[in-house]
């Protein structure tokens, strides 16, 4: 029986979520499996991967063939490195304690790198939010200044419109007064 380590798709359309499983290569993609090794969520940044490394190494030693994506996930989580170190122990290059020490050092370095990326993303998100808030404050200040300017212009235009109207009314009343006098003179 040919055994593969592969992904089994779950989740809804546009929101994939995968189980990492050991399955017979002839079984359907989302069909029957032998053992579930972990989960993989590509939606999060960085992708969330939970994997039983020891069980994955055991299946790799038994001859299970990972698919391309599953191989990348196993490499990312250190299952392939642990298998490599176990091969070194089997050859006598170093002992089991040294292999465990090297694997733990690698895992710590990898976790620090992932944590650095998470913190970098959080910082970038906070900076983007702060920049958007500052831009919004500037837009609001510009809007308030434009409204104040428009109000001042409207008030000045109203005063300008009222001032000539008063002068025209005054001129018109002065012009009517002599005409009324001339009418009185003609009647007399």
Automatic annotation (TrEMBL):
User: Per its UniProt entry, which superkingdom is the organism in?
Assistant: Bacteria
Under the heading Pfam families, the entry gives:
Ribosomal_S16 (PF00886)
Would I find Repressor among this entry's keywords? no
Gene Ontology biological-process annotations: translation
GO cellular component terms, A-Z: cytoplasm; small ribosomal subunit
For this UniProt entry, the molecular function terms from Gene Ontology, in alphabetical order, are: structural constituent of ribosome
* Protein name per its UniProtKB record: Small ribosomal subunit protein bS16
Source organism of the structure: Chryseobacterium sediminis
Q: What is the lineage of its organism?
A: Bacteria, Pseudomonadati, Bacteroidota, Flavobacteriia, Flavobacteriales
Protein encoded by which gene: rpsP
